[in-house]
Amino acid sequence: MDLTEQQTIRDLYALLEKEELSKLQGQTLSFGGFVRNARSMGQVAFLSLNDGSCFENLQVVYDASKDELSGIRLGCSVQVEGVLVLTPEAKQPFELKASRVELIGKVADDFPLQKKRTSFEFLRTIPQWRMKTNTFNAVFRVRSALAYYIHEYFFQHGFYWIHTPILTANDCEGEGQTFQVTADAKKPAEFFNKDNVHLTVSGQLHVEPFALTYGKVYTFGPTFRAEKSNTVRHAAEFWMVEPEFSFAHLLDDCDLMEDFLKYVVSKTMERCEQDIRFFNERIDSHLLERLKEFIEKPFARVEYRDALKLLEKAKEEGHRFEVEDFRFGLDFGSEHEKYLTEVIFKGPIFLINYPKDIKAFYMKQNDDGETVAAVDLLVPQIGELCGGSERECDYDKLLSRMEELHMNIEAYQWYLDLRKNGSIPHSGFGLGFERLVMLVTGMQNIRDTLPYPRCYKDMLF
Amino acid sequence: MDLTEQQTIRDLYALLEKEELSKLQGQTLSFGGFVRNARSMGQVAFLSLNDGSCFENLQVVYDASKDELSGIRLGCSVQVEGVLVLTPEAKQPFELKASRVELIGKVADDFPLQKKRTSFEFLRTIPQWRMKTNTFNAVFRVRSALAYYIHEYFFQHGFYWIHTPILTANDCEGEGQTFQVTADAKKPAEFFNKDNVHLTVSGQLHVEPFALTYGKVYTFGPTFRAEKSNTVRHAAEFWMVEPEFSFAHLLDDCDLMEDFLKYVVSKTMERCEQDIRFFNERIDSHLLERLKEFIEKPFARVEYRDALKLLEKAKEEGHRFEVEDFRFGLDFGSEHEKYLTEVIFKGPIFLINYPKDIKAFYMKQNDDGETVAAVDLLVPQIGELCGGSERECDYDKLLSRMEELHMNIEAYQWYLDLRKNGSIPHSGFGLGFERLVMLVTGMQNIRDTLPYPRCYKDMLF
């Protein structure tokens, strides 16, 4: 196998795009992959071969008289060799007139994928097969591209990838929403000599010291929540991106979020153009339009207090909300977020400077004594995509906030000390990666963006 | 903050390299970072500023008469502004004559880092500070670069990154070396409706179905072993890279491993040239030489049976091994691996076609009935860097091997079925990422390659 010289279906489409495919016309090429579709007309058989390189298939035309090929159908794997023929008049722009078709792997009679449409619910029961359907084939290709461009963006902008730990013994304020980890359930503290080892809910605290040394860093890895909720937006295991950078204030954080997201989404739209066209046709007919707006339109920046006033005004003008109490200190419900993004601003907005009591202890306390330098990025259809803040870098202020919240100071002393030695103003945010996959694919259930979803009461293999 | 236009110390060195730094001579620039070193001579003070962008510091010269700057020392954070002056005659090729030096974050008297040399053992007790020392500053920069180039290589070669799960309910043959996970220790099976949820030891089985659909895929994420061993090479939590590809046999696997590793190592050597020069000077004086050989010399390919003969011959010629029993069916000890790589082949070797009884159940059974198509990559000084194999893709052969090993067939039925539906010959390997970091940095203890090491009896925060 030559690792660099293999021809893929993606390459053919790239040449077609550049109007250079004619140089391969009449040449003998070979491909391997799985069969998306097979049919025959008399002695001529057709199969749609997918080699994984892109969404589009290669139409293969061959002599159907050979008995050993009669079993070729959806899910079979094949290798083919033949001559490339351009067919500009036909539905597909080219095809392979195969001189050799080899059936590599048959499918058994009980193979669960059939040509007919299958529900996403059913497909969730067969994560080992569902990526052979059009939808999931595209989902995991888009997921992979998004993940890659996240790294590319940060690398190009001088951010270091820091692998913060999954196992942590940091006291996590007994929220009861973490998974406990033991090597031996009978002696839970034995392995690490720690009482309370659990799976991380965020890499932020662990990555902050690296931001104070390297300037710009990020984590990108799995995080865990043991929430007993069965919604389309929550998984027990999901991936999170968390950049953290020094000499950065709240509005710098917004700048980074916007620049980063637009880069990752636009690169993925380019790379996975075939997939996203499919999603636009089959999953969400407004997808392309919304994504174009997402990468082109500047995100509005709105003070929490101003958002309150806008909602109040909408109410006065006759809009009916289910919850109409907009007092300072309350978090917005999704109907309010929807109204702000979809009706008032018609696009993504940064909501900034939230009341401190609805936000985390580490956020920078603003001079008004009531708010913190927090930001949520709200997106039409999706809701909250990212949340971030400038971090409190004053030792005394942070300590007194932690005392107010009755936190276990001793467990966090190492974190507090970052404010005592070489402290720097710094900011960061967290992006739930699957929400980004949902944004770009139009998929509505987080279970359909994860290769093997792990949710409450729901885990296979 | 302008995210794209910031000048870094790395940029200055890049311009210097291209002999274009003179165009910044006399210009006013500003930098922020932490102080690596500070000293004064009369009214003139010097500080070495590190902004995280590279190993080298910026020498900053300023007027020491200001009282408020007297506290500047190792670990402080500062912002400086001044004029760049080229100093080709001096030890450092340029310096900043600062018109403004602002002390952003002091260090407290009990700050644990001091100018004197500190042992790695001590530094392991302060993972939140040790990245400010020369050695660890370089380690985590190299680690980040290696991780990035891993993704870059696979992306450029058409591999999809598949996020295989951390939590798994797959039966893992009761090896007793996995961590158990529960949301509630009193009702361990409640959350997922599964008895035995644990942390993954490998993503391979979960990634294989994706390889059979997309052709080329990989996982790169944390993996876990609850081994009660306290060696310099084992951690309870570590990162693993696992590519898997279709239409690939054992020698293709070797090709991929070699091409991949040489790419990642050579790109990192280029990117982190300053860091690796430091390691070569301070940590391992043969490092550069060994790395150059690693990327330039073809890796030898040696049959397990031939390696046995070579060791036998060495024994006959008088070399004394501690263990001198080389019968077929035994695994090599590290003394044997060392002799093969360091004495006989003087470089990395692929050892292939191992006895089946010392390898995993999923490896392709060779026609001799005794060996499997397995490969270990052995490297001088490091030992085993990667292990891989062609996978058994014949349903009946795989099933009978699993029965021989008394495995729980039912739990693996989904995996077995991959051989029944659209099976394709495929291969893959696993690379313990920290071993690669050790190879490239010369660091001898895995605890010194992980931001927050988690080892037996050893975990902070």
Give a short overview:
The structure is a homodimer. With about 450 residues, the first copy, chain A, is of the alpha+beta class. Helices cover about 30% and strands about 25% of the residues of chain A.
The gross shape of chain A turns out to be: elongated
Class computed from helices, strands and strand pairing of chain A: alpha+beta
Number of DSSP strands of chain A?
16
Average pLDDT confidence of chain A is 94
* Strand percent estimate of chain A: 15-25%
How far apart the termini of chain A lie comes to 32 Å
Protein chains sharing the most extensive interface: A-B, 110 and 110 residues
Oligomer: homodimer
Q: Into which percent range does the helicity of residues of chain A fall? A: 25-40%
**Over all CA atoms, what is the radius of gyration of chain A?**
26 Å
What's the helix-strand series of chain A? HEEEEEHHEEEEHEEHHHEHHEEEHHEH
Low-confidence stretches of chain A: none
Largest sheet of chain A: 8 strands, mixed
Provide the spatial order of strands within the biggest beta sheet of chain A.
Answer: 6-10-11-16-15-14-13-12
Please report the number of helical segments of chain A.
12
Describe the structure in your own words:
The structure is a homodimer of 461-residue chains. The mean pLDDT of chain A is 94. In chain A, 30% of the residues lie in helices and 24% in strands. Chain A has twelve helices and 16 strands. In chain A, a hairpin with a 3-residue loop joins strand 14 and strand 15 (383-390). The two termini of chain A are 32 Å apart. In chain A, helix 3 (134-156) packs across helix 5 (250-271), helix 3 crosses helix 12 and helix 5 (250-271) packs across helix 7. With 461 residues, the first copy, chain A, is of the alpha+beta class. The longest helix of chain A has 23 residues, at 134-156. Chain A has an eight-stranded mixed β-sheet with strand order 6-10-11-16-15-14-13-12, with helices on both faces. The interface between A and B is large, with 110 and 110 residues.
